[in-house]
Design brief:
alpha+beta; three-stranded antiparallel β-sheet
Length: about 375
């Protein structure tokens, strides 16, 4: 498999590891971008029809963009992490949810992972419709007693808080405050004119897939497998209406360059602009909030505030590294201690049909060795 692109001096090993990954999976379409203290040091891609500019469905990678917006609003004093959600959104208090704070919501402690009978595709594509359904929903566990991945809904929940306070959607604020100023190819709502650059998601071969998730399990509910029919992630992302609306939890579209630059901008000077997050806000959003096991995914010490605790998954990173994976195997993050901002994207699902692809372990280890 031919590898295209360039790496900076000292990052040659990263190219070698990326080439080895490409050689192991026939037809793999993937991109890798890394910035170090704001400067681009890795820009690679491989696979049929793939370029560095190609746009891919990045699913939950969008949760990182959404919660960077929330962090900016906390930094500005517009949002208070310890205020009750119902103080911003009165309808949310129904069914025993009145004491849930914005901090609880961001830490996935609300227990509001879905609804009985699941959501339609039209609802999943539209954060406003999701928020309306969820406001009256009873939590699936006592809020604050546990935490679990709110896979399809967290962006709609935090997004409704943002809308009630600012009158703007998370999608609009991402566009205005993050995407446009830096010229990022990372969208929560893909414009029609960019559709020719979109490469549709490719499913994993049937023989490599894991078995179905029980629809009445917490994971089944969180991933909308209790709907009729259950949500198929490939079909979902390849639906134009989903890409157009850009639901903040699962509807992001972009490329590795765009996502890596976003995370670099969060912690470093980029293009003469100061970091988006100040020291205090960064410290608040990147400290562990709920130790223990995620009751939906089974992952240990899974979340910070809005972001995944990627340092738990990748030991080479600092404890304050923050980012988010995406269902096709994508992984993106910022590591404040090293100044590394990383994004790996794939066009085809990996084994298990969700979460960060296993090759990220080798790629990240090589990046961190080079970045020392």
């Amino acid at each position: 498999m031919v590898v295209h692109g360039a790496v900076a001096e000292g990052f040659d090993e990263v190219r070698e590891v990326f080439a080895a990954v490409a050689a192991e999976e026939e037809g793999l379409g993937a991109q890798l971008a890394v910035r170090h203290h704001g400067h681009q040091v890795v820009d690679l891609w491989t696979g049929p029809d793939m370029t560095g500019d190609s746009l891919l469905a990045l699913y939950s990678t969008g949760k990182g963009a959404a919660h960077l917006v929330v962090a900016l609003l906390v930094r500005d004093g517009t949002l208070d992490l310890d205020r009750r959600v119902a103080g911003y959104w009165p309808e949310f208090a129904a069914e025993g949810k009145g004491e849930i704070t914005l901090r609880d919501l961001l830490a996935h402690r609300a227990g509001l992972i879905g609804v009985e009978g699941g959501f339609s595709t039209a609802e999943l594509a539209d954060d406003r419709l999701l928020a309306e359904r969820l406001a009256g929903q009873q939590p699936y566990w006592l809020p604050g007693s546990a935490y679990g991945y709110h896979a399809f809904v967290i962006g709609a929940l935090t997004g409704e808080v943002v809308r009630r306070v600012t009158g703007r959607s998370i999608q609009e604020l991402h566009e205005e405050r993050v995407r446009t100023p830096y010229g990022l190819d990372f969208y929560l709502g893909l414009p029609e004119e960019l559709e020719p650059r979109y490469l549709p998601v490719q499913p994993l071969a049937p023989e490599r897939r894991l078995g179905p998730v029980p629809p009445d399990s917490l994971m089944g509910i969180a991933f909308n497998q209790n709907a009729t029919p259950p949500t198929d992630l490939v079909d979902f992302a390849n639906t134009r209406a989903v890409r157009a609306l850009g639901p903040a939890s699962v509807g992001s579209v972009g490329n590795a360059r765009g996502v890596a630059t976003m995370y670099a901008a969060a912690i470093s000077e980029v293009d003469g602009r100061p970091p988006l997050l100040d020291t205090a806000t960064l410290a608040e959003f990147t400290k562990p909030h709920t130790p223990g096991v995620d009751v939906v995914t089974g992952e240990p010490d899974h979340f910070l505030l809005g972001f995944e605790a990627v340092g738990v998954r990748y030991p080479a990173l600092g404890a304050d590294a923050f980012g988010h994976s995406g269902a096709v195997g994508a992984q993106s993050f910022a590591d404040p201690g090293s100044g590394i901002a990383y994004s790996y994207t794939r066009r085809r699902f990996t084994i298990g049909d969700g979460g960060a692809a296993p090759e990220n372990h080798r790629l990240i280890a090589a990046v961190m060795r080079a970045g020392r």
